[in-house]
Design brief:
0% strand; elongated; AhpD-like
Length: 180
Amino acid sequence: MARVTTIDEDERPELADLVGRIRAKRRGRLINVYRLLLHSPILAETWFAHNNAVRWNTGIDGRTREMVIIRVALLNRVDYVVKQHVPTLALAEGLTLAECDALNDWRSAEHFTPRDRAVLAYTDSMTRDIQVPDDVFAALRPFYDERGIVELTVLIGTYAMHNRVFQALEIDPEPPVTSA
């Protein structure tokens, strides 16, 4: 059970505009992370804006983005994120279920390209150690220009922050989506 109650949007009509903007970009849903963040509307709003920029307004392709998000969550043992992204979001962006499973032990898996391996090594270093060895950083250079490296770095850092917030607040899993 979450350590902080979730906001019931019906009881907070002053949040209707922000909730509407969030729902519009989240396939009509107001997921638990936003229900928690709405305790601080300014943080909910800036989190939402930053998250959208990181996920949708960079040159990082969707497959790589999902691979990074899932790997950061696996390293931090954050089931909430893994369940949010696997299988639906990951598959929609081109990862296979076999690749999602292989992210647990990507170094011994045959599923990943040299580019994927450079990204995953960078993700692991940033997440586990924070300081990235020169050789790990250099391995990105054949695949990314400086803008791409900045965008990849911010993606990894953003999801490291997400993981810490989700774990500290013990965010509840989302209820399953049911079709009408």
